[in-house]
Amino acid sequence: MPREHFWRYLAMAGFFAIFGIMILIKTYGIQSSPQAEVFIRQSEYYSREQTTIQPPRGIIYDRNGNILAGNRTVYEIGVDLASVRDPQAIALALSALVGADYNTVLERASIPASASSVYVVLANYVLPEKVALLKSYDVTRDAEDMDSTACSNDPALYGLRCEPLLARSYPERDLASNILGFVNRESLGYFGVEQQYQGLLAGEPQNIWVPISPVRVQERPEVPAGASIVLTIDREIQAMVEDTLDAHIERTASESGTAIVMDPQTGEILAMASTPRMDLNEFQNYSDIYTNEVPYNRAVGEIYEPGSIFKVITAAAAIDQGVVTPETEYDDRGVYTIGGITIRNWNNRAWGLQTVQGCMQHSLNVCLAWMGEKLGQEKFYEYVDRFGFGRQTGVDLAGEQLGTVKRPGDPNWYLADLGANTFGQGIAVTPIQMVMAVSAFVNDGQMVIPHIVKSVIQDGSQYNVSPQFAGQPISAETARTMTEMLAASLEGESSLAMVAGYRLAGKTGTAQIPVPTGYEENQTNTSFIGWGPVENPRFIVFVWLERPETSTWASEVASPLFADIVERLVVLQAIPPNYTGVGTVSNSGQGGQQ
Amino acid sequence: MRNKSFVQAHNQTPWRRQMQTIGVVVVAIVSLGLLAILYLNVTARTATMGRSVQSLQNERIRLQQQIESLESQLASLTSNESMQARATASGFVPMQPSAITYLTVEGYRGRTVVELAPRAGLQFTGVVRLPDAYTKSLFDWVGELFDQYGFGLLGGY
User: Fold this and answer.
1) Which of A75, A86, A166, A576 reaches 20 to 30 Å from A542, CA-CA?
2) Averaged over A192-220, what is the pLDDT?
3) Quick one: closest CA in A to B43, which residue?
4) Closest CA to A117 of A105, A108, A106
């Protein structure tokens, strides 16, 4: 090395050494400065992105494995503002194919890209068919791969993004809509099973940070899907009940209707229908369909004065207490005074000497008021409580009402209420309460709690729900006596509720509708509750038609509905006919009496 | 003494010392280059695999969504309304009670609730019998051959 160059080299080496040392010092200074944490946080923030793993919502099946509520792919269409080339083209395409508003899309797609405006959503819940049209928007080019988030093959639509996501789907449309409820776009369940089991069905969404660098890729955590649910509902029975109910609502020009079919031994609800119903895939129509505070499911969400079907409770209490037997006689003179009010029979007639069975067969208000007074107010209301009226049954559906029971000691209770309550007036119940109460007659006095979920599938296992009982309001002997008495009553009346080949027990109920000034004239609630076959009951069927116009009597409008449902139900449940007694009369052409 | 100073002079020849320095520097540079190439290669492969993993993760999510969607589509196609319409179109009519002949089968309890998963408490415990090829060592295999041909020297496995 020439000596004269030595200092030059040394100077350069020194310069670079000092420069390097300065970099090191600065680096150390930055890393130990108060702002270091901010920089570290920023670097971590930009090195990954937060993603929410939304587990698929659990599927709802009927008892035979048919899907009642599943999930389907829909798309969120948005735009990367920095990539937009032609906002007008985007607005035109989305308004033509997706139905989005042209001006709204144009306004959003024209937003200048900035640090705070990177991506905007232009349309949501777009069906795959429409996205497929976008993907092949330019017919001169190949369609964009459906797997790609790029939304179109048209260069003018560059920047458009289609993100797939899962939305609720109801393949059966309006079938069992009153039971299922629906899920809104925020994945929240409303009404029915969707609301009741929101926590189970929805699963637990998990927020995770995903590294942007592929070198730092990590295994994504397994987020378990929401639990799936198998309902006790039988799709075929549900469809049959809905069709039959709708036909009878139309035939009787009723305002609305409700029907419940329950397995009395297990409490499994096989079908539950009420009006109105709606296509759950179009849940946004809810407020147009359910106007004026109409309950979503009348079977659990509406209370009404049941009328004469409540007489089975009064009679059961009186027999259970030994106050009367089916053979006890009562001289019906057509009027009965209690608490200062006069009670009359449904036809304002005196029926003379009647047994208790005759009182039930002819549905005599006077006789039941006498029976209730004989039983005593304390015992009567004790049985009302025992049968579960005035409180929820515990059925696993959202929106269950309590009903209204006035009791002695309440400020608005009078002795006259006892008289009215004995035949189902002045007391309000839900249909599901009546069904649960009557289940005691079938299960040797034990009431079974109605339920809608048969089993839950979670973490790869199926958990079956066992029947639950809600106490024993009456003895087994009373239960059998009531069933026999009510079966004989139907036969004695040649009721329209009878079905050829099957011995059934049941009771009609025709109730005036209360208004603030008393009761409506010529408007009734008509219902029927029955069960069978008597020797081995497989079903309880409750039907209720509100304000029928063709007749105000349950025996003429509710009984045929009950019979039509049972006639089809025994076929679907494969219950062979085995009765050749009075019940073999055809339900057509028989003139039933109240 | 003369010989020693000659060797020293030979060793301290300027070009020889320069060659030594250059050699060390070149070795260092080559080593660093090799390390860099190795590092780049590993990093590139890691990035490729990482991108592949990310792609597969997205694919998995997409397939799960597709499965859910297809199940719903299938359910729509076999919905009660659709099946009734297809049955009617095929000439079927609802069964009338009077046309049914019941055959009672002793012990038959009818349809039971659908089982979509193993019942809780009855789960498969996960005892899986892997094929021998996955568990057998070379010695096991040789031993098996010996056993097979009757030598019996290494015994069974």
Assistant:
1) A576
2) 87
3) A215
4) A108
Separation CA A28–CA A574 (nearest Å): 84
Q: Which residue of B has its CA nearest to A230?
A: B114
Q: State which residue of chain A sits closest to B69, comparing Cα positions.
A: A72
Q: Which of B149, B139, B128 is nearest to B157 (CA)?
A: B139
Sign of the CA dihedral with A243 first, then A247, A250, and A254 last: negative
The answer to whether A393 touches A260, Cβ cutoff 8 Å, is no
| Cα gap A231→A241, rounded to integer Å | 16
Whole-angstrom distance, CA of residue A528 vs CA of residue A308: 9
The DSSP output letter for A532 is E
Please report, for residues A6, A33, B29, B31, the alpha-carbon distance to residue A20 in angstroms, rounded to integers and kept in the order given: 21, 20, 20, 23
State whether B46 and A214 contact (CB < 8 Å).
Answer: yes
Rounded percentage of chain A residues whose pLDDT exceeds 90: 70
Flag if A214 and B50 touch (Cβ within 8 Å): yes
Least confident of A73-82, A233-242, A477-486: A73-82
d(CA A478, CA A316): 7
Q: Is the pLDDT of residue A437 over 50?
A: yes
pLDDT of residue A146 exceeding 60, the answer is no
Chain position carrying tokens 């009903």: A403
List the single residue in A with minimal CA-CA distance to B121. A461
Distance set, CA A308 to CA A509, A525, A528 (Å): 4, 10, 9
> How far apart are the C-alpha atoms of A584 and A587, rounded to whole Å?
9
Choose from B61, B69, B122, B124 for mutation: most chain A CBs within 10 A: B69
H and E: helices and strands count for chain B: 5, 0
Q: How is residue A225 annotated by DSSP?
A: P
Over residues A279-301, the mean pLDDT reads: 93
Cβ within 8 Å, pair A213-B110: no
Residue burial B38-54, b: 16+ Cβ < 10 Å; e: rest: eeeeeeeeeeeebeeeb
DSSP-based helix, strand, coil % in chain A, nearest 5: 40, 25, 40
> A359: part of which helix (H) or strand (E)?
helix A356-361
**Across the strands, what pairs with A329?**
A355
B113 closest CB neighbour out of A175, A230, A239: A230
- Is the pLDDT higher at A98 or at A60? A60
Omega before residue A306 within 30° of 0, cis: no
Task: Report how far residue A265's alpha carbon sits from residue A441's, in angstroms, rounded to the nearest whole number.
Answer: 10
- Grouping H, G, I as helix, E, B as strand and the rest as coil, residue A164 is strand
Retrieve residue A381's tokens: 């209301």
Alpha helical stretches, state H, A98-153:
102-109, 128-135
How much is the ipTM here? 0.81
Asked if the Cβ–Cβ distance from B97 to A164 is below 8 Å, we say: no
Q: Does A587 touch chain B (CB under 8 A)?
A: no
